[in-house]
């Protein structure tokens, strides 16, 4: 037995020496060639066209996310409502069937909590800067808290923008001009009440069905930010654009909480920082593009006009009280 081990020991020492580098450290540790981080593949969906500023922002975010995490986190983007309406995508993120989504309004979450219809109150924000201050401050924190209780983690508030009316009937200058026009509306009691106060008809409909409905005359008009009117090519099926700016919408970047927690702290930090970076660039892009889009839509044949804002504010003043009667004024107070 002693003779056996005396022959084996030199072989063991030789094998150990072969696996070491200077200083006696194993070669694999010295080169640090193996990463123990498990790759995470994320998918984010939205209903917008590939040409929209927010899609472009998501592409930039995805590219940098892969770079800054050394490929440990990748993000695939599914656009154009390929995974269904925004309400369907919210449900998919809740259940974990979808990792992330960019939802085009806080008010689209009102099915989870009716208080979140607050964005539907017309003429709520005097300026973009006021809107940013609200969603990036205590108001946004409260919305994030509410959505957190519903199984959704908010990463950042991007921008959808100011909504304007388009239709095929007539130029809208005064509230009376809305009479008898059939508008597509989100399925929101507050939004429907706004149309009712203005004397228009409103038909609840998913955004993914809108272009065909306008094309076929199911509805006469719709209301959306200029960036969506342009990127969705509504100018091909709409004649009049009336610059009302009656509602400002955030866009909400959400993620399933279990998916968020699957990321390590460094990965979370990178995703959070990039979400803020591209939030700011998208906001800038949408604001800068508005005047350019108006000229482009004019060149494509749309007739563009301003509205009597004071008259519209007076006509819809009861909508705010309708919201308060149902939901209280906590969120409005935070905004104010």
Automatic annotation (TrEMBL):
Against PROSITE patterns, the record matches this protein to: PROKAR_LIPOPROTEIN
Highest taxon listed in the record's lineage = Bacteria
Could you say which residues form the signal peptide?
1-17
Keyword line: Signal, Transport
Transport is among the record's keywords: yes
| Record bears the keyword Acetylation | no
User: Could you say which protein family the record assigns here?
Assistant: Belongs to the bacterial solute-binding protein 7 family.
- What is this protein's record name? DctP family TRAP transporter solute-binding subunit
User: Upper taxonomic classification of the species?
Assistant: Bacteria, Pseudomonadati, Pseudomonadota, Betaproteobacteria, Burkholderiales
């Amino acid at each position: 037995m002693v003779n056996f081990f005396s022959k084996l020991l030199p072989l063991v020492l030789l094998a150990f020496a072969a696996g070491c580098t200077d200083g006696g450290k194993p070669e694999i540790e010295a080169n640090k060639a193996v990463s123990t981080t498990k790759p995470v593949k994320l998918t984010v969906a939205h209903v917008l066209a590939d040409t929209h500023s927010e899609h472009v922002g998501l592409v930039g975010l995805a590219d940098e996310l892969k770079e800054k995490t050394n490929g440990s986190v990748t993000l695939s983007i599914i656009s154009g409502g390929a995974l269904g309406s925004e309400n369907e995508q919210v449900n998919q993120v809740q259940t974990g069937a979808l990792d992330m989504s960019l939802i085009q309004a806080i008010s689209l979450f009102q099915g989870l909590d009716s208080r979140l219809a607050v964005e539907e109150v017309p003429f709520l924000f005097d300026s973009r800067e006021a809107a940013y201050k609200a969603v990036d401050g205590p108001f946004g924190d409260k919305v994030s808290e509410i959505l957190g209780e519903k199984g959704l983690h908010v990463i950042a508030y991007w921008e959808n923008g100011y909504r304007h009316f388009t239709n095929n009937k007539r130029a809208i200058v005064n509230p009376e001009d809305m009479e008898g026009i059939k508008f597509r509306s989100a399925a929101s009691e507050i939004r429907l009440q706004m149309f009712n106060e203005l004397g228009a008809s409103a038909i609840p409909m998913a955004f993914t069905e809108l272009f065909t409905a306008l094309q076929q005359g199911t509805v006469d008009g719709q209301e959306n930010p200029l960036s969506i009117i342009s990127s969705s090519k509504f100018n091909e099926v709409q004649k009049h654009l009336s610059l009302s700016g009656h509602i400002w919408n955030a866009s909400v970047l959400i993620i399933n909480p279990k998916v968020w927690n699957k990321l390590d702290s460094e990965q979370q930090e990178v995703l959070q920082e990039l979400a803020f970076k591209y939030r700011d660039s998208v906001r800038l892009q949408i604001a800068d593009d508005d005047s350019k889009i108006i000229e482009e839509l004019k060149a494509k044949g749309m007739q563009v006009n301003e509205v009597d804002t004071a008259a519209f504010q007076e006509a819809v003043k009861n909508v705010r009280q309708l919201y308060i009667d149902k939901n209280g004024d906590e969120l409005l107070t935070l905004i104010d």
